[in-house]
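quick one, two chains, predict together pls
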Amino acid sequence: MFKFIFKRIIQSVIVLFTIITVTFFMVRFAPGDPFSAERKMPEHIKKNLMEHYGLNDPLIVQYGNYLLNLTHGDLGPSFTETRSVNQILRASFPVSLELGGLALLIALGIGLPIGITAAVFRNSLLDYVPMSLAMVGICLPTFVLGPMLAMIFGVWLGWFNVSGWFIPADRVLPALTIGLVYAAVIARITRGGMLEILSQDFIRTAKAKGVPFPKIIIFHTLKGGLLPVLSFLGPALAGIISGSFVVETIFQIPGMGRQFVQSAFNRDYTLVLGTVILFAVLITLANLLVDIIQVIINPRLRFEDS
Amino acid sequence: MKVTLSGISRIGASLVAGAIVLFISGCGKGVPNADEGVAKGILLYGNGTEPKTLDPQRATGVPENKIISALIEGLITYHPTDDNLPEPGMAESWESNEDASVWTFHIREDALWSNGDPVTAHDFVYTYMRMLAPGFPGEYSQMLYILKNAQEYKEGDIEDFAKVGVTAIDDKTLRAELVGPTPYFLNMVKHYSWFPVHPATIEAHGGIFDMTAAWTLPENYVGNGPFVLTEWRPNQYVRVTKSPTYWDHDTMKLNEIYFYPVEDANTEHRMFWSGLLHITGTVPTNDVPHLRENYPDLLHIDDYLGTYFYRFNVTEPPLDNPLVRKALSLSIDRQAIVDKVTLGDQRPAYAYVPAGFNEYPAPHKVEFNPEKAKELMAEAGYPNGEGFPELYLLFNTSEGHRKIAQAVVNMWNKNLNINMQLENKEWKVYLDAQTHLDYDVSRSAWIGDYMDPITFLEMFTSGNGNNDTGWSSPEYDRLLDAAFKAGNEKEHFDLLLKAEDILLEELPIAPVYWYTRIYMMDPRVKNWTPKLLDNRPYKYIYLSE
């Protein structure tokens, strides 16, 4: 197993390096620069700033410097904020992680029971109704659901702040907005996975041997039936954390999604790179973790194979 | 068996419900709401975007301006009702020589920094030396070029700052020698680029050239304004509280202000309706008609010192021909755009410089006359649009700009029988295209910095970095230069009017409308007056049922 993990880490480092390199040059080749604005800054001021940030050096030198600083964990200064990229990410990453974690809990808490129920009572009302709702959930984008929840529970009922990230209750609406959409996806995947296992021979054998039905579900089906959900979780967690731009904007959340999108708009080179690196690490880690758990759970897989 | 499964989900559901109840009952709202604000004198203010810096010499944006004006006070400050008038700030009195080229300010005895130090004339000299230091990246440093030898010092031609036209005669007397007569100098000084900073604080945090701006963090910030910086939570809010050392703190009624950086107009709208804001920064455009009808007491529409216009690239045919540009300008029905598209009581721009400046009459030179436009097109060699090439109207990606561009392009195509198309680009790409004259027609806007038409007209002088049209006129340059040096206001305005005449005759730009500021305000906010520059002294504002 350690050999497997070691191999994967080496692979990840290569992937990360490629991502950093591609991002570094791509963002530089985009038209515009961090200091362009509707009211232009005087040429000599701009020259000073470029000089200060080392942007006048040849690109390859800048690239070398960036990598060198990166080895010390220094992501550089931000071009648009007074805070450094490290400071910005240190402040916004925990927020995104908390929001993403809660959203995932909600997604699992709602999606799993619904999916399992639907599979067990296939082709009954308990299947059709939740699954149709799930379809609606998948189709409903967060930029519709978020404002709707904020209007109902924030403005009309007054139970929650419509925006902000000040008290624990402020987590509810945004986490619900993301969570419900993912719950729908998870419900569908769970149902599919469960159905596949339920049609297997060993389940029929268990039934024929007179094993009680709940026992069959809990001890024989769940483990295999939830495997597809598990492999979905890795990319889902990464997607939730990096893709929460819309929800963060709707609810005024100081998370990373907003930093990511804004930095690209602002050509804040270092902040773009910083967020991309963090996301890449996150996605790699999440996938690695899922792979390991999968092998542990699924007897048909060995570490060598994956 | 069914019982077991639904039992599990029931337990889950009650857990979630329990957690939610705990959340709600366990805590308050975390931030004051509008009612609490009224009771405790806390103003809740929607402030657009997250401030990039709170350093007055490095700031450039409106949201920054709003916060910095609460923290720092200049020599002259904002008048509560009329932006044309000077209001004593750090200077309790001032005088100028006859031709308004040398000004002397008397700093009030009781002016203190928030750490208790007295505010002195030396602080101002230090501030301007910092702004004008050749390596200092102050984007507004050109504002200070009105001081004698300032430009030469900034550009490194002279090295002795003593030669620059700003001197501390003694601790409380500051003298400014200008490059020439400047009757509108007091209006310029109100701009935050002239605000003082506390020298010891700057020096203690890396000195003049420090780029980390550590001195602007709440634990370090020293200001001289009505409020002190108490809390700065990035992307959440900036909180300022009443300063005990402010010279006029007896007048102040507000205890705190929360500045919320809300970029999404719809989010801000919900914040207002759920009582998290007293004043919003903007209103979703589509809601304006509904609000106007149902909540006229909450909706505010104020004139604002800004012009929305289109730039023409005059370096390429057919737009190098003034007749064509005039024809295009003549076929824009500005009234229709204001009434049907922008919806916020904006005023059709019949000139470039917006109305509202003291004694500067906005000329009514730009009109809507499609018949005359057709004649001009024929005269330019494109009768009924024949042979007119396909052109593109460039705008930065935004729903609002698209609607206006769509309307204008339709007017052009219909009235002149030409083929104009829309082209949108992402913000920075759009800026890049505009700078490199890589466009035919480009959406533009300009907001005035201070109360003089020069703030609008200067940008179209030859070679100005913000010209971006390729247009230049020696006569225009000459008039602007003469206006700079005019000894009295009448002469100054006359010269500027002549210059604007040339601009509106040659039309390197087509003005579309003059801005308004549209916002929602809680009626319990008192003493809030509409202002052209949207700058107001916070010390007079209060909250009351």
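The CA atoms of residues 435 and 468 of chain B lie 6 Å apart.
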